[in-house]
Backbone:
């Protein structure tokens, strides 16, 4: 059993299952201790009968009388009692197995669900610091290690405490000296148990950490297998994996060796107790005429048989001590890791969901300064941003790579906190909006397009799986991808593969765009979402935006001037600052950076048409 703020609730939630399982375990422990007593009586009666058959005299003593012989009625009685005991043990054992083992599965399900719901609420800054493979280790090995303490952990603990205690009491009642001598090795182990568990705990936690690193490396390699093959880095990655795998193996072996040492120690103590029992108990039976002090001479063959039966019942609790330490140490180490994950809080200053229906899409930036939470330097990603976007405007954002274009729109999604008074949406401070209300009215196409390993229509209808086929096709036509999809043999029922690996870059971008526009959001953000399409498709998409999104705000982040030159407003960013804002013709005259970009792209287009693209690019860029 383990306790912690994220698992204690399950003891209360499933108390009735624990109660039934706990009582059934105790019942099995109590009932099975009747067996040695009955076996002892049977052995005593049979030995008396055999001795009587040989004359009844052994070393001058008469063992038993006719009243101690086995009769037919005795056979029936003992057989019936043993049959009832076997039935009772089977019944109660079934009860604790069905209750405790199923409770383990339920707790594993509940804890995994709670963890998943929690990580879904965490902010982007958390995922910036974590790796996917590492997070997966929490949901697999760690949950399993914790959940098993609710089944095997409770079973072993109950047997150690109740079966071990009851068996020891029975042994003490028969012969307290022999009982103490047999229990002495285990008393010694109990004294050092804390240190043994602490050592196992530390080694298992180290094992889990290395497993996390190994999982992360495998996940990254499988996700980036195309890049690895393109750079012919298979051998290099194999070597890295071999080194990490060897380190993981060494950590596993360290933990395994320690566990084996504990098991060997427990077994050595168990068999040392067995040696004490056989040596002293056997000497009593074989040499009863010897005057042995401390009460050992009082035992006869049926008492010793009963005593040995109790000792056999004590062997399992003694072995279970080592297994219990192993399970509890693993569970505690994993629970600490899970607690670390569950203790992470979203950094976003959020508000309760208010189901806002009226949303215009008017945005105002007032002297916005922004720095990423994990940025250790004083470098600002955005600095002194002042701009107003009226509802229904089509706004282009352009600038060099790393100038802050994606950061600019990410602040609107409440992926990160901004200070109060710096961003207003529909006249309301962004910190007073709930994330869900805000994102309900924003359609977002990320620069790094992501598609789920599902059908194309399911990806497009991700916002609402109940959308009709016509609505899905309409969104696809808006994004100019309907013709491409229709060319597939299965059409919209084509499975795209993990992260859309079976599609081209342009197809992925446009399917992601269709997924965003199907919401018909008041604010649409396209983050470099036309970079992988040809100029004709780009013009068609821009025409669709002008035609079908009248009165709704649209942001288009692009590198090509052709994607933004006809928009209502163009924002030019450089090193996190706005260096130009206005229409195309105005910016050519007032913004040197924008004019330079226009000139370079115009010149590049001209030389491409003349077939000199490669020579000019190598000398210009």
Residues:
């Amino acid at each position: 059993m383990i306790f912690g703020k994220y698992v204690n609730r399950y003891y209360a939630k499933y108390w009735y299952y624990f109660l039934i399982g706990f009582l059934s375990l105790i019942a099995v422990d109590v009932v099975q201790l009747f067996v040695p007593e009955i076996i002892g009586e049977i052995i005593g009666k049979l030995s008396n009968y055999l001795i009587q058959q040989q004359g009844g005299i052994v070393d001058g003593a008469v063992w038993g009388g006719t009243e101690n012989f086995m009769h037919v009625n005795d056979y029936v009685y003992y057989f019936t009692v043993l049959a009832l005991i076997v039935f009772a043990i089977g019944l109660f054992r079934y009860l604790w197995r069905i209750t405790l083992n199923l409770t383990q599965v339920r707790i594993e399900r509940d804890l995994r669900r709670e963890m998943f719901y929690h990580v879904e609420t965490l902010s982007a800054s958390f995922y910036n610091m974590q790796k996917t493979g590492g997070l997966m280790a929490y949901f697999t090995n760690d949950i399993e290690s914790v959940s098993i303490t609710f089944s095997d952990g409770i079973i072993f603990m109950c047997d150690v405490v109740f079966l071990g205690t009851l068996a020891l009491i029975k042994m003490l009642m028969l012969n307290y000296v022999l009982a103490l001598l047999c229990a002495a090795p285990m008393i010694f182990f109990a004294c050092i148990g804390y240190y043994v568990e602490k050592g196992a705990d530390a080694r298992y936690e180290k094992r889990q950490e290395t497993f996390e690193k190994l999982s992360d490396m495998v996940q990254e390699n499988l996700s980036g297998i195309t890049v690895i093959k393109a750079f012919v880095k298979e051998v290099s990655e194999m070597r890295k994996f071999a080194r990490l795998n060897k380190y993981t193996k060494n950590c596993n072996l360290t933990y395994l060796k320690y566990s084996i040492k504990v098991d060997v120690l427990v077994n050595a103590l168990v068999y040392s107790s067995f040696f004490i029992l056989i040596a002293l108990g056997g000497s009593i039976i074989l040499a009863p005429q010897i005057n042995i002090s401390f009460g050992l001479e009082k035992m006869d063959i049926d008492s010793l048989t009963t005593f040995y039966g109790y000792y056999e019942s004590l062997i399992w609790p003694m072995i279970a001590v080592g297994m219990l330490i192993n399970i509890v140490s693993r569970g505690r180490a994993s629970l600490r890791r899970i607690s670390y994950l569950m203790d992470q809080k979203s950094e976003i200053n959020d508000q309760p969901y208010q189901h806002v229906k009226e949303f215009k899409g008017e945005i105002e930036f007032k002297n916005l300064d922004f720095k990423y939470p994990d940025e250790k330097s004083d470098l600002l990603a955005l600095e002194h941003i002042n701009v107003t976007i009226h509802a229904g405007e089509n706004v282009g954002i352009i600038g060099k790579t790393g100038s802050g274009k994606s950061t600019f729109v990410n602040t609107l999604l409440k992926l990160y906190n901004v200070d109060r008074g710096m961003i207003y949406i529909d006249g309301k401070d962004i910190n007073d909006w709930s994330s869900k209300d805000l994102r309900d009215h924003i359609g977002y196409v990320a620069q790094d397009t992501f598609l789920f390993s599902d059908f194309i229509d399911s990806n497009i209808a991700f916002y609402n799986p109940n959308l009709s086929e016509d609505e899905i096709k309409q969104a696809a036509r808006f994004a100019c991808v309907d013709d491409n999809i229709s060319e597939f043999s299965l059409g919209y029922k084509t499975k795209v593969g993990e992260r859309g690996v079976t599609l081209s870059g342009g197809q992925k971008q446009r399917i992601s765009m269709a997924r965003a526009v199907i919401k018909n959001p008041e604010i649409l953000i396209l983050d470099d979402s036309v970079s992988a399409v040809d100029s004709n498709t780009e013009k068609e998409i821009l025409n669709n935006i002008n035609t079908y999104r009248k009165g709704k705000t649209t942001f288009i982040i692009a590198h090509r001037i052709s994607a933004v030159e006809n928009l209502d407003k163009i924002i030019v960013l450089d090193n996190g600052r706005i260096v130009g804002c206005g229409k195309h013709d105005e910016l050519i005259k007032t913004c040197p950076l924008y004019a330079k970009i226009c000139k370079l792209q115009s010149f590049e287009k001209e030389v491409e048409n003349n077939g000199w693209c490669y020579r000019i690019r190598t000398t210009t860029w």
